[in-house]
Write a structure and sequence with these properties.
This is Disulfide bond formation protein DsbB. GO terms for molecular function: oxidoreductase activity. Keywords: Disulfide bond, Membrane, Oxidoreductase, Redox-active center, Signal, Transmembrane, Transmembrane helix. Pfam families: Thioredoxin_4. Helices cover 59% and strands 9% of the residues. The protein contains eight helices and five strands; from the N terminus they run αββαβαααααββα. Strands 1-3-2-4-5 form a five-stranded mixed beta sheet. Strand 2, helix 2 and strand 3 form a beta-alpha-beta unit. Helix 3 runs antiparallel to helix 4 and helix 3 packs across helix 7.
Length: 245
């Protein structure tokens, strides 16, 4: 009888453990599916408001660099005009701005040698376009505040491989970080994608001059082969030397 009782107990234990494991697996799977669904729904909502170049209306004619339309630093009487082509999602653009921008301004812009321009080359993803259009909306209100946006957005840059510069993120970021603008007008311009034509125009113009990545620099209309600070300084100094001869 004792043997029979032990046999029954052993049989119950034999099936109880696998059933418990199976139940736990089901619970984990259901929880995972709910989480995935929630994330997908959130991502889909964010993607709904992202722009697409193919949807931008208006014919773009490439007829020069259009310096007059670009955010700028320095005197318009400077003999050297430098353009940085950049994407707000680009980690290398963030690195250049944080490591070299202040020194560049001190050495070349504040001394009156260079007028410096920023030109969008938004190509990494659709939120690149939105971040660029936000910059354009701020620039249309204030050239000074545009440069504030540049520095602070790079400081808050997300992962290059992720969609992070969404409408929700940018609206909150600008509200909390950029003072001295008409926020209601900015919000309207961002949601209506008022300046997406300007972003696409920049992209088309830059591409026509051979720009194929970021950051890239142009000195008096000549696109540099690399984006190192040494190459940029050398190109500027060469132009300054030629001008003085």
């Amino acid at each position: 009888m004792k043997r029979s009782f032990n046999s029954k107990t052993s049989s119950k234990n034999k099936y109880a453990v696998p059933m418990l494991i199976a139940a736990l697996v089901v619970v984990i799977l259901i929880g995972g599916l709910i989480l995935i669904k929630d994330r997908a729904g959130s991502d889909t909502s964010a993607l709904d408001n992202l722009p697409n170049y193919t949807e931008v209306e208006g014919k773009i004619v490439v007829d020069g660099l259009k310096y007059e339309k670009q955010p700028h630093l320095g005197s318009n009487t400077a003999t050297i005009k430098v353009i940085e082509f950049a994407d707000f999602k680009c980690p290398s653009c963030k690195k250049w701005t944080e490591k070299y921008m202040d020194q560049f301004i001190k050495d070349y812009v504040d001394t009156g040698k260079v007028e410096f321009f920023f030109m969008n080359f938004a190509f990494l993803d659709r939120d690149s376009y939105l971040a660029a259009s936000a910059g354009e909306a701020i620039y249309k209100q204030s050239n000074e505040k545009f440069w504030d946006y540049v520095h602070k957005l790079y400081a808050n840059q997300g992962d290059e491989s992720e969609i992070w510069a969404t409408e929700k993120f940018i609206l909150k970021f600008v509200k909390n970080n950029i003072d001295g603008i008409d926020y209601a007008q900015f919000e309207k311009d961002l949601k209506n994608q008022t300046y997406m034509y300007d972003v696409k125009e920049d992209f088309k113009i830059a591409g026509s001059f051979g720009v194929n990545g970021t950051p890239q620099f142009m000195v008096n209309g000549v696109l540099l082969k690399d984006s190192s600070y040494e190459s940029l300084s050398a190109a500027i100094d060469q132009q300054l030397g030629s001008a003085s001869n």
